[in-house]
Structure formats: structure tokens, C-alpha cells
């Protein structure tokens, strides 16, 4: 945690202000996030601002027990351990809600779905929620569309200072790191198939290309597919890509990206990994059914022997490979994302009672403040508009 903090100068600056101003005094903040070192620094920052922090992990494999223990020792209420099962995870969500949170920081919408379905009595006291990831934003928007959302939500995921850096550069680097740590394979010369060319997919594609891979993109959105073509990648359907790929990494947020139809035609030795939020992108159930035997090949690598003798290798059980087989995003990018989280939580509190039960984007001033703090911390100076320039840009003549 000290290592992460040393690489998170923006959060350190915010923490120094929070210590003085105590914006969260008397408020419990319920968090459901990947519980590793950077998240712990966010938890400590909120606590320094006066909050009671109660947290659970958002994935059974991403919780790091040493970090969970250290965060608990620093005074947060921690309900998380590595390899939690589905029922324990559910109970932990309810334990976090047992602290009557005034604010929620969610990663995947899990705490709020639990509030809306099982703990509606908490709703009057909940000021709002911040959501970390694309999949969670989809779930919150679906609640809003059905007229069921009961408090304001800020889609922190949609901040420029999040998706341009965390989703793209953070996941790009750490997903490849997860694959490399798990397999110790050379990426150069391999064909890496990336499912989805969104913010995460393009980051993974860029890093794979930089390591010398031939990169193939699969997409359902023609504009994104066109972008991928013009960025120099091969684009094809998964049916075609399945036959040529050595390493597959999904990042669509959708399910059933790689299924039996694809397992049947894959090369012997193909490696399957996922970097999307849930373990539904590689159809693991069908893979288990199709295989004649399985065994653990290495830590985070499961070998599936198919009827014809081919072996396919699944990484991290099809869960987020960058968090389950590596340490997640580098601290420098999480510094930006978690600065957005801390500032958005503060914004919800300052605007208590003024916001509707809707999904809001991140206020531009917060995006700009986070970027400005990062530049300042890294001693990078930029220009500012002169009065003449402002006048010029605002004039139609
Ligand atoms: N591993 C991490 O640390 C991490 C970080 C950020 C986001 N995420 C998760 O990664 C996923 C993608 O996030 P994003 O921000 O890139 O989303 P995005 O919406 O920008 O991109 C997803 C892309 O996948 C494409 N797609 C959707 N369904 C598809 C299908 N069936 N076949 C092929 N392509 C398909 C979409 O057209 C889109 O271009 C989400 O689940 C998100 O929560 C993970």
C-alpha cells in the first residue's frame, strides 16, 4: 500500500485536503471494489476525510488477503478474502450495507443492485453512488430505464480521466502482464485475438502489437471495426479468428464471445483469457463439457484436453486476467481513476438533495481538476487561453 501510495500523487494531494476539511465526517461509505493495494489507498483517503469505510471485493480472485488485512488494521471494515464463494460474496455485500452507507462506491453495480432488491429500507439515507466500470454503468442505466433507480449515480467510468488512461493504458498493460505472468510465453510472433475494440480492447491491442504480436480484432460495431482496420489490425469474425489465434483476450462486456463453435476449431495450445468484467465472455461451462479431461497446468492456467487430443488453456478461470493473474492496473493510472472517485463522492455529498435519481456523467470540472492535479504532481506545465484567445474562440465573426 505504501508502494502504491508513493505512485499516487493526485490522491495524496486530495487526502491532504480531506484531512483538513473532513468532508465525509459522520458518513459511512460502502465500497465494492477489487481489493488490492490501490483500492486500499482510496479507502484510506476517504477515511482520512472522516468517513467510516466498509468494503468488500468485487471479484473472488482479485482480493489480495494481505492488502485486505492491512486495510482492516488501518481502521476500515473489510469483508473480503481471496476465493470467496458466491454465497459468501453475497453475505459480504449485505454486511457492507449493514453499515447504513450514505454513499456507495461500486464496481459492477453490485451493492446498488443489492440495495434495490433486498435492502430498500436503506434508500432514504443513500445520497448517491459512484460506479467504476462499463458493465456497472450498463446495469445502472438499465435500472434507470426501467424507472427503478432510487438515487443519483455518477458514472465515474465515463470520465475522460478514467477511460482514456485506466481502461486503455491500465488494462492494456496489465492484461498482457497477466497473460505473461500466467504462461511465461513469448508474445512476439504470436497471433493475439482481441474480442471487442472498445477502450479496453484497443489498449490490449496496442500493447500486444508493441510486443510484436500479429493482432486480430473481432467486433459487432462497424465503426469500431473500421477504426481497428485503419489502426492497422486485421478484423474478422470470431469464427474465422478462432482458427488462427494463439492467444485470445476478450474485452467486450458481453457474453458468449468464445463458445463451443470456436473451441472446436482452435489450434492445439491456444490460450484463452478474459479482461471484461464478468466471467461470461469465454463460455467456460461449455468448455468443461466439451473437454475429456482438465488439470491445473500452472498457477492460473487450466488445461482442457479435447476429444481429438488438442489442448486449450484457460487463464484465471475466465475471470479478469489482469487482476486475477497480475496486480491489476499500475498505480499511476489508478491515481487518476480514484481521484475521480474521491472527488465524485464529495460532489454527491455537496449536492445532496439537488440531484435526480439518474445516471450522471462526471462533471467536467472534476475531470479537469483530476487531470490538472496529475500534471502539477508530475511537474508538467501547459498553456492557458489568453483573454484575446477566449474572445476569438467565442465569437462567430
Ligand atoms: N480488466 C479491467 O481491469 C477492466 C477495466 C475497465 C473495464 N473493464 C471491463 O471491460 C469490458 C469492456 O469495457 P470497455 O470500456 O472497453 O467497453 P466499450 O463499450 O468501450 O467496448 C466494448 C466493445 O466490445 C464490442 N462488443 C460488444 N459485444 C460484442 C460481441 N458480441 N462481439 C464482439 N465485440 C463486441 C462493442 O461493440 C465495443 O466496441 C467491460 O466489461 C468493462 O467493465 C475491465
The proportion of residues forming helix, as a percent range, comes to 40-55%
Distance between the termini: 55 Å
Q: What ligand molecules are bound, each kind once?
A: nicotinamide-adenine-dinucleotide
Estimate the global geometry from the Cα principal axes.
globular
- Strand order across the largest sheet: 9-8-7-10-11-14-13-12
| Poorly predicted parts | none
Overall structural class, as computed from helix and strand content, comes to: alpha/beta
Task: Describe the sheet with the most strands.
Answer: 8 strands, mixed
Mean pLDDT: 97
Q: What is the number of strand segments?
A: 15
What's the gyration radius in Å?
Answer: 22 Å
Number of helices: 17
% residues in beta strands: 15-25%
Describe the protein in words.
With 397 residues, the chain is an alpha/beta fold. Helices cover 45% and strands 16% of the residues. It has 17 helices and 15 strands. The strands form 2 sheets. Strands 9-8-7-10-11-14-13-12 form an 8-stranded mixed sheet, with helices on both faces. Strands 3-2-1-4-5-6-15 form a 7-stranded parallel sheet, sandwiched between helices. The longest helix has 24 residues. The relative contact order is 0.14. The mean pLDDT is 97. It binds nicotinamide-adenine-dinucleotide. The site of nicotinamide-adenine-dinucleotide (NAD) has 29 residues, from α7, α8, α9 and α14.
Which descriptors would you attach to this protein?
eight-stranded mixed β-sheet; seven-stranded parallel β-sheet; globular; alpha/beta; binds nicotinamide-adenine-dinucleotide
Amino acid at each position: 500500500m505504501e508502494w502504491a501510495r508513493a505512485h499516487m500523487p493526485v490522491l495524496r494531494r486530495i487526502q491532504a485536503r480531506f484531512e483538513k476539511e473532513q468532508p465525509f465526517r459522520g458518513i459511512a461509505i460502502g465500497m465494492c471494489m477489487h481489493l488490492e493495494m490501490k483500492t486500499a489507498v482510496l479507502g484510506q483517503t476517504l477515511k482520512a476525510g472522516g468517513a467510516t469505510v466498509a468494503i468488500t471485493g468485487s471479484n473472488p480472485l482479485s482480493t489480495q488477503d494481505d492488502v485486505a488485512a492491512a486495510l482492516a488494521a488501518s481502521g476500515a471494515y473489510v469483508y473480503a478474502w481471496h476465493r470467496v464463494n458466491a454465497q459468501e460474496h453475497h453475505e459480504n455485500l449485505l454486511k457492507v450495507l449493514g453499515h447504513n452507507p450514505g454513499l456507495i462506491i461500486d464496481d459492477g453495480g453490485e451493492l446498488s443492485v443489492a440495495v434495490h432488491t433486498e435492502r430498500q429500507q436503506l434508500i432514504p439515507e443513500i445520497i448517491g453512488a459512484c460506479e467504476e466500470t462499463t458493465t456497472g454503468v450498463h446495469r445502472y442505466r438499465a435500472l434507470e430505464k426501467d424507472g427503478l433507480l432510487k438515487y443519483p449515480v455518477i458514472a465515474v467510468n465515463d470520465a475522460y480521466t478514467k477511460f482514456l488512461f485506466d481502461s486503455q493504458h491500465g488494462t492494456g498493460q496489465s492484461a498482457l502482464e497477466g497473460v505473461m505472468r500466467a504462461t511465461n510465453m513469448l508474445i512476439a510472433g504470436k497471433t493475439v485475438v482481441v474480442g471487442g475494440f472498445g477502450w479496453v480492447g484497443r489498449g490490449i491491442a496496442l500493447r500486444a502489437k508493441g510486443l510484436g504480436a500479429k493482432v486480430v480484432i473481432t467486433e459487432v460495431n462497424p465503426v469500431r471495426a473500421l477504426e481497428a482496420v485503419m489502426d492497422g489490425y486485421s478484423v474478422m469474425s470470431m469464427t474465422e479468428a478462432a482458427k488462427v489465434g494463439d492467444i485470445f483476450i476478450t474485452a467486450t462486456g458481453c457474453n458468449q464471445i468464445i463458445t463451443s463453435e470456436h473451441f472446436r476449431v482452435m489450434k492445439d495450445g491456444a490460450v484463452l483469457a478474459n479482461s471484461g468484467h464478468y466471467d461470461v465472455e469465454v463460455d467456460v461451462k461449455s468448455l468443461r463439457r466439451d473437454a475429456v479431461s482438465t488439470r491445473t497446468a500452472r498457477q492460473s492456467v487450466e488445461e482442457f484436453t479435447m476429444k481429438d487430443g488438442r489442448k486449450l488453456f484457460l487463464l484465471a478461470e475466465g475471470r479478469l486476467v489482469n487482476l486475477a493473474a497480475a496486480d491489476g492496473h499500475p498505480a499511476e493510472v489508478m491515481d487518476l481513476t480514484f481521484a475521480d472517485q474521491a472527488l465524485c463522492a464529495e460532489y454527491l455529498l455537496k449536492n445532496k438533495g439537488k440531484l435526480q435519481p439518474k445516471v450522471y456523467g462526471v462533471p467536467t470540472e472534476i475531470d479537469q481538476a483530476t487531470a490538472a492535479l496529475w500534471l502539477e504532481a508530475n511537474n508538467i506545465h501547459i498553456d492557458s487561453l489568453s483573454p484575446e484567445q477566449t474572445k476569438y474562440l467565442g465569437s462567430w465573426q
